[in-house]
Amino acid sequence: MNIPFKQWSAWTLVLFWMGVIFYLSHQPADESSALSSGIVEQIIAFFETITRKSFSDADWMHYFIRKGAHLFAYFLLAILLMHAWLQTGWRGAKQIIVTLIMCVLYATSDEIHQLFIPGRSGEVTDVIIDSVGASIGILTFLIIHKIVLLIQKHKKST
Does the pTM of the predicted model rise above 0.70? Predict the structure, then answer.
């Protein structure tokens, strides 16, 4: 069976991104916290440079960055899945529903996985945040895809 390159590459990106999510979830709490703390420190330094004000309490920003990472990870996973299904020939409701189900199931399995990692926990709220990110990713994909189709249609008619 010969799989077209577009399909193969689209699904390879999906699996790669799922691997990244798994890798980040597999980090013990101290490593995960150090990673997000490093990112928060860089963001604080950036904003302090721009505003010339000190951000002494960064706990809220640390929380925001961690939850934002969840949102972004599943936003991107949904976009990659939508693209992969499109390359496979699935469009419309089937493409949307299967993408959302896959994202929710992967988010759930990811939180269960974290129950077995030292210092980590599985959170239902994280699954909800992941699902919101996936939903936004699906909508974003649909909007961009529609715009691309309209541009292509306009180019053909001129």
Answer: yes
